[in-house]
Amino acid sequence: MAMTPAQINADLAKAFRCYASKQRRAGLVLGNRLAVLRQEAALAHLDPREFEQMARAHLDITDTRMRSDVATFHPVAAIAGEAS
């Protein structure tokens, strides 16, 4: 039996809540790892600017990859592509 519009709407809300929660958790994990690595860099007497430069380089690479993935694979991008 086909889903009702209310069921579809409820499932969409659940899917996006799950997506937002996973994104938030991933951000928390990244933040914690960066904090630990920043402390390790300080213990290693690494210049804070050098640490920031290394982190920025990895951030730029990751950001580019994530933007590409979103444009290609994100479910909302697929819907937007179908609509146009």
Provide a quick synopsis of the model.
With 84 residues, the chain is mainly α. It has three helices and no strands. It starts with a helix and ends with a helix.
Features:
84 residues, mainly alpha, 3 helices, 0% strand
What does this structure look like?
The protein has helices at 5-43, 48-73, 75-83. With 84 residues, it is mainly alpha-helical. It has 2 domains: 1-44; 47-84. The longest helix has 39 residues, at 5-43. The model has no long low-confidence stretch (mean pLDDT 90).
What is the topology?
Blueprint: H1 5-43, H2 48-73, H3 75-83
> Approximately what portion of the residues adopt beta-strand conformation?
under 5%
How widely separated are the two ends? 30 Å
Main beta sheet strand tally, sense and closure: none
Rough shape? elongated
Q: Rg from C-alpha positions?
A: 19 Å
Let me know the number of strands. 0
Helix content: over 70%
